[in-house]
Amino acid sequence: MPPPREHAGPGRIDPAPRRQLDHDLLAQLTTRLTERDLWLLNLLHEHRVLTLPQITQLAFPSRRAAAHRLLTLYQHTAVDRFRPARPLGSAPHHYLLGPAGAAVLSQRHDTDIGHRAEHVTALAHSAKLTHLVGCNGFFTALIAHSRNTTASPADGQSVLEQWWNEKRCAQSWGHTVQPDGYGRWRQSGRIVDFFLEYDTGSEPLARLTGKVHDYLELADATGIYHTAVLFALPSIRREHHLHDHLGHHGRSMPIPIATTNTALLTAHGPARAIWQTLDNTSGDAEHRTALIDLPISRSAATTPPAHNSTHPGDASAAGPGQATGRVMPR
């Protein structure tokens, strides 16, 4: 069989010939998929789309190794892929769960996980794609940091213990807040729980300020005030403007709020000292804080293990089709 073409045109699903899903293919996949493959398929089901660079961050030693394995999974319809249109240059392949991958997961979890081919096409052309990829990239960068510190523990051992998507967050807290994600980050014996607000600049700053009041309402309702609200903003200018809007709260804010911007996220990653708290009005790099050093980090020894709960900070462990952010099994 000839290999798939690398590019089928801007914003189009790759039409390269692949094997048809049948009982023989499903039987082969059941025996040939590795633990890493299954982990990745679960992530794609839970988080919908991941780019080639993000998947490399998650589970592979190099981009070439990731592309090679993903090509095999693509040829066997375990994953689908597309490249969104860009005005200049070309985007990396974006990967989604494919029909054979969905069939394997449905078989393993003894339930129909609800995969539909039309969802792939819709996502490829969705106006929300950039936002979704950006949110997922925040969490894959944390996992990449964890993988790197496992090999070189200068920053202390770390792991992303929980990674919830927007849908799962809405199921738990949607009556009050609708974060873009929720995470639990453990590093050097301490833990930070956080909500992510990934801002692309499409909303007025007054709306972002209103979200802070929504998180205050949630904290009052649950009695949990240690879960940080992290705002990732598209520019340092917008970050400064948000601080101007929130500045009158300062140290009086009962829940921890921290901000960063795309330039710092891209250059250093979310685990590093890129976070600006409300009491820091300078915005200078030397006054920014690492994620684990935010003032609400707690000792892991005093933090209960994750269990079934709708309270932030007590996130439930992953169930069928729900993958945590733990480093890929080796």
Automatic annotation (TrEMBL):
Residues 300-330 are annotated as: Disordered. It comes from the Bacteria. InterPro entries: Replic_Relax (IPR025855). Residues 300-311 have a biased composition (Polar residues). Pfam families: Replic_Relax. This is Protein involved in plasmid replication-relaxation.
